[in-house]
Write a structure and sequence with these properties.
CATH superfamily of the domain at 45-70 and 87-261: P-loop containing nucleotide triphosphate hydrolases
Largest sheet: 6 strands, mixed
Mean pLDDT: 85
Number of strands: 12
Radius of gyration: 19 Å
Oligomer: single chain
Order of helices and strands: HEEEHEEEHHHHEHEHEEHHEE
Strand order of the largest sheet: 6-7-8-3-9-10
Structural class: alpha/beta
CATH class of the domain at 45-70 and 87-261: Alpha Beta
CATH topology of the domain at 45-70 and 87-261: Rossmann fold
Length: 288
């Protein structure tokens, strides 16, 4: 492992939170005046844990995740990663990485998938980059021998696995997932959720998952934050959410009641991935 990765682990061990959001507010200026997309949002996520951000369309989820990713400058408040304030990225890669909603839009159609996975590692030597890409593709269930193939040769589920591998390439402290299963077939969604759970167990990043689906949120996260019109209506653990003693906003209470009968079934916490298919060590790829 590269020296800077070791230094990163030493640095993060000194801070209690992988990411901390303090009083985040975002206003946009329009023809009709200011529009407040986020209002005084605060939360923190430790390493190895995941927070789900749940809300309807227009709740401010996308604006929040863009601010957390360093792609949008908040009007006020702070985003701290490993105790340090996050700066606008301007194309740089680092402690915060993102898995986008539609994997086909996230990959260059003219490049081999290995080249895309290794893109965040431009400063690494060619040999180190190739080794890391091989490890990552194997981790997410893609045959490394297909690293030169283009995205159009893979299914939607396989492409999302490739996007996850690319996000993990620089060993991020925080992984952001924007509706990671909404563009996938139902039959593939559970596999991707299991993959995210498995790689987090190994990589120990803090996760933030944006979703409109409370069942997906409960599968991936220990804690949940409900947004509506840019304001936090609830922030706490799922145990608190379902505790009859917890006083909930009527909107949150309605979502919980609706979701009780429609929870997404997810099997064992395994990514699938590569397994020796025979005694000769041949590798078997996840098909979807």
């Amino acid at each position: 492992m590269k020296k800077r990765a070791l230094e990163r682990r030493a640095e993060t061990s000194e801070t209690p939170w992988a990411i901390e959001i303090k009083g985040l507010t975002k206003r946009f200026l329009g023809r009709g005046g200011d529009h407040t997309a986020l209002s005084d949002v605060s939360f923190a996520v430790g390493r190895g844990r995941t927070l789900a951000i749940v809300g309807e369309s227009g709740a401010g989820k996308t604006t929040l995740i863009r601010c957390v990713a360093g792609l949008e400058r908040p009007s006020s408040g702070q985003v701290l990663v490993n105790g340090r304030e996050l700066q606008l990225r301007h194309g740089r890669t680092g402690h915060v990485q993102m898995v986008f909603q539609n994997p086909r839009d996230a990959l260059d159609p003219m490049r081999g998938i290995g080249s895309s996975v290794g893109e965040p590692l431009r400063k690494w030597s060619r040999a180190e980059r190739r080794k890391r890409v091989t490890t990552l593709l194997s981790l997410v269930g893609i045959d490394p021998r297909r690293a030169g193939r283009r995205p159009n040769e893979f299914s939607g589920g396989q492409l999302q696995r490739i996007v996850i591998a690319r996000a993990l390439a620089p060993s991020p402290s925080v992984l952001l997932c924007d509706e990671p299963t909404s563009a996938l077939d139902v039959s593939v969604q559970a596999q991707i959720l299991n993959l995210l759970l498995s790689v987090q167990e190994q990589e120990r990043f803090a996760g933030i998952v944006v979703t409109h689906d409370l069942a997906v949120a409960r599968t991936l996260a220990e804690d949940v934050l409900f947004l509506r019109a840019g304001r936090v209506l609830f922030h706490g653990s799922f145990e608190q959410l379902v505790d009859p003693a917890t006083e909930l906003d009527p909107y949150v209470s309605g979502l919980v009641r609706t979701a009780r009968e429609s929870e997404l079934p997810v099997g064992s916490v395994e990514a699938g991935g590569f397994r020796p298919a025979s005694d000769d060590g041949a590798w078997q790829e996840v098909a979807s």
